Structure formats: C-alpha cells, structure tokens
UniProtKB/TrEMBL annotation:
Family the UniProt entry places it in: Belongs to the AIR synthase family.
Domain PurM-like N-terminal: 58-163
Molecular functions per Gene Ontology: ATP binding; phosphoribosylamine-glycine ligase activity; phosphoribosylformylglycinamidine cyclo-ligase activity
Cellular component GO terms held in the UniProt record: cytosol
Coiled-coil features, chain-numbered ranges: none
Keyword terms, alphabetized: ATP-binding, Cytoplasm, Ligase, Nucleotide-binding, Purine biosynthesis
InterPro entries according to UniProt: PurM-like_C_dom, PurM-like_C_sf, PurM-like_N, PurM-like_N_sf, PurM_cligase
Subcellular location: Cytoplasm
Name this protein carries in UniProt: Phosphoribosylformylglycinamidine cyclo-ligase
Gene Ontology biological process terms in this record: 'de novo' IMP biosynthetic process; adenine biosynthetic process
Annotated catalysed reactions: 2-formamido-N(1)-(5-O-phospho-beta-D-ribosyl)acetamidine + ATP = 5-amino-1-(5-phospho-beta-D-ribosyl)imidazole + ADP + phosphate + H(+)
NCBIfam families named among the record's database cross-references: purM
C-alpha cells in the first residue's frame, strides 16, 4: 500500500486506471463482432478470422494519429469527436487497397488520467469503429506525469483489415483513359491543423464560440467536424465495379497522395473547377493569405477520397454513391505522362 501511495504521489494512479477500464468496458463491447473471442483487459486481443471464402487472404494494416487537431479539442474543451478522426485516418487508408476493416486498437497518452476526458475520447473511437464496422479489441491508456502538460494528450490508432490477394487494389491496372471520381470530404478532416491554428488562434484570435459567418457556425464546430469514414460506400462500390486505384486525400493533398498509386507512364489530371471548394477552405485561404497551390498541397479542399475507374462506369458509380447519400464528383482523368512531367497536374 505504501508503494502504491508513493506511486500515486508521483502522478500515476493505478486505481483510477482500473476504474477507467470498468467504465469503458460496456462501450467497447458494443463494437464486438462474433469474431472477437476475448474481453478487454487481457494481455492481447483475440480475433478469429474466417477465410474459407478467400483464395489467398492478405492482412492489411495501418497506423495513424490525429496530429494537432487535438490542440483544437483542448482549446474547445470538446473531446468526443477526435476518436472518430482517429479511426477514420486508419481505416480509410486500408480500404484504399480493397481491404475490409476487421479490428482496431488505440493508444492514449496523457499527463494525468481524467476519466471524463478519456471516456469522451473512447466514445468517439467506438462511434468510428461502428461506422467502419470493425471491433475495438484493445488499447492502452498511459499516464505519464512530467511528460505531458495539464490537459495535454496524444493518441494513435491501429487498424487491421483483410482482402483476398486477387482483389487487392494497388493502382497497377490504371491506364490512360481511366476517369477520376472524388468523394466529398466533411471538412478539414485531420490534416493541416498547424497552419489552421496559426491562422485561427494566433492571427485572428478567435475563441471556440466565435461565430464564423463564412461557415455558418462556430469556430469549434467547424474545426472539430470529424473526418469522414469512407469504408461503407467504398466496399459497396468495389463489389459492383472494377476500380483500378484509390487514394485517401490527407496531408500533401492530391499531388502527394494520388501520385502514390499511379504507374510511371500515367498522369492524373484533376480539374479543380469540377467541384466547389467548401467555405472553410475559402475562409482559411483568404484570412491566412494562403496561395491556391499551397491550399491544394496542405488540405483536401473538399475531396477526401478518390477512385480511378473506367469511363463507362463513371455515371453509374456517381449514381450509386448519390443513392447511398454520398456526394461525389467526376474530377479528372488519366492521361499519358511525359517523362519530365509531374505525376499529378491540377487545372
């Protein structure tokens, strides 16, 4: 008992950590599929995989974080949506390769465990897992006094999915003449927030409840809009159509993300007039005096996910996405690339 008391005095409360597990267990269990064969609190999460319908099953993994969007959550004292961002950043990356998410794990680190704060974060993670139809089978909450300041925290997520080897989508079948469909983003998603904070906090001096007329809501509401999870519509589309390549538009925008899936002989030509840049991006561009080219290198600018498909399928895919409630646009095409030309050209 004396040792535990000394440990608590040093900033680590083991009883509080145990209380946290008890509080979040019912939440986490709501994400469990029948494949989950262990409860939380064990040394490892167990997940049984049925591969009988696959010729050559391949596991696909991704890890990511939310970056300095967490600073906005602390600024606004609102932590129940960044967990959705965390799940989205991971599962959107694995569905790019045609994988169906199976399970998710999270890591939280903070100076002192605040039960209400952690529970709010976990509620967001649970909501994201449900939307992505994957199970939250484990996690770690690290109490690290002296390392993180008051109310500061960081988190990382880990997603694992599965795809049959013949069904892997990696861009290798992209050809000249293929067309590019862009799925609308929900807003900033989770990239570019160091620049966002510089403009909104430092230069404009806005408060969380400051009304941003250009966006029609408060600064906190706009900046904490969760990242869209594309798993459900993408899995439906790839079951019905041949999709040659896909990209999750995150940091680096179109140039850095679309280029990752293109064969060397192909160039993606994207017409920026094919969709309207959402108000939050126009607001940041004007208020921060950010050049048009830099906007498209830092932010998604309204398109969070792209698919490269056959020209004959464009209208049908757009119609299917609209029927599912997802806004999408025909934003470009694949052309032959000159050796000295960039892989992505923005019009």
């Amino acid at each position: 008992m004396a040792d535990e008391s000394r440990y608590r005095d040093a900033g680590v409360d083991l009883e509080k950590a145990n209380t946290l597990v008890s509080r979040i267990r019912p939440l986490v269990q709501t994400t469990f599929h029948a494949n989950v064969i262990t409860d939380i609190g064990g040394f490892g999460g167990l997940y049984s995989v049925d591969c009988t319908q696959m010729k050559s099953p391949v596991l696909v993994s991704s890890t990511d974080g939310v970056g300095t969007k967490l600073k906005v959550a602390v600024w606004a004292e609102k932590h129940d949506t960044v967990g959705i961002d965390l799940v989205a950043m991971c599962v959107n990356d694995i569905v790019v390769q045609g994988a169906r998410p199976l399970f998710f794990l999270d890591y939280l680190a903070m100076g002192s465990i605040r039960l209400d704060l952690v529970e709010a974060i976990i509620r967001g993670i649970v909501a994201g897992c449900k939307e992505a139809n994957c199970s939250l089978i484990g996690g770690e909450t690290a109490e690290m006094p002296g390392f993180y300041g008051e109310n500061e925290y960081d988190m990382a997520g880990f997603a694992v999915g599965i795809v049959d080897n013949p069904d892997i989508i990696d861009g290798s079948t992209i050809r000249v003449g293929h067309q590019i469909i862009g799925l609308a983003s929900s807003g900033l998603h989770a990239n570019g927030y160091s620049l966002v904070r510089r403009i909104v906090f430092d230069e404009l001096g806005l408060r969380p409840d400051s009304y941003v007329a250009e966006c029609g809501r408060t600064a906190a509401e706009e900046l904490l809009e969760p990242t869209r999870i594309y798993v459900d519509p993408v899995l439906r589309i790839i079951r019905q159509f041949q999709v040659a390549g896909m990209a999750h538009i995150t940091g680096g925008g179109f140039p850095d993300n679309v280029s990752r899936i293109l064969p060397k002989q192909c160039q993606a030509v994207i017409d920026r007039s094919a969709w309207e840049m959402p108000p939050v991006f126009r607001f940041l561009q004007e208020a921060g005096k950010v050049s048009r080219d830099e906007m498209y290198r830092v932010f998604n600018c309204g398109i969070g996910y792209v698919m490269v498909v056959a020209a004959l399928d464009v209208d049908d895919i757009l119609g299917r996405l609209a029927a599912m409630g997802y806004k999408a646009h025909h934003i470009g095409e694949i052309t032959a690339r000159d050796p000295e030309a960039p892989p992505v050209r923005l019009l």
